[in-house]
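Hi R.,

As promised on Friday, here is the backbone we talked about, encoded as structure tokens. Could you run it through your design pipeline when you get a chance and send me back a sequence?
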């Protein structure tokens, strides 16, 4: 066991912890001290046990709020994962059918006739240019 001295609310405490866990103890003590300092600045002098109790309750309240937020975030993530799995498992949509209008025969015949006339005119113009 490692012995550590921590300071909370201006008071020193000797605390034992497992070897290698000193950093965690110091971090927790700093958090508790920060809450104790808030209490002391607001209320002033108070009995040590009351200061420790109030500071611990303030930390517990903050922790409970964070746990609620974490639970909500996990639920949202779970919902998103469920929707994603639903989307991934959904069969692909049927191919869209596209209908192309059919051009009536008399229109294609008329266009073929116009094309033939245009070619004939182009041939005539070409002959005049060569001969002329």
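Update: got your reply. Pasting your designed sequence below so it's all in one thread:
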């Amino acid at each position: 066991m490692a012995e550590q001295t921590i300071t909370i609310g201006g008071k020193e405490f000797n605390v034992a912890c497992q070897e290698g866990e000193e950093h965690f103890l110091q971090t927790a003590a700093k958090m508790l001290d920060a809450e104790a300092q808030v209490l002391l600045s607001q209320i002033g002098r108070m009995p040590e046990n009351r200061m420790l109790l109030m500071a611990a309750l303030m930390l517990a309240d903050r922790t409970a709020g964070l746990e609620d937020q974490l639970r909500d975030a996990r639920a949202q993530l779970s919902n998103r994962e469920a929707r994603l799995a639903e989307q991934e498992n959904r069969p692909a949509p049927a191919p869209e059918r596209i209908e192309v209008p059919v051009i009536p025969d008399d229109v294609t015949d008329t266009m073929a006739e116009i094309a033939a006339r245009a070619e004939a005119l182009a041939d005539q113009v070409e002959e005049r240019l060569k001969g002329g």
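One thing I noticed while checking it: Helices lie at 22-43, 48-89, 105-131.

Thanks again,
M.
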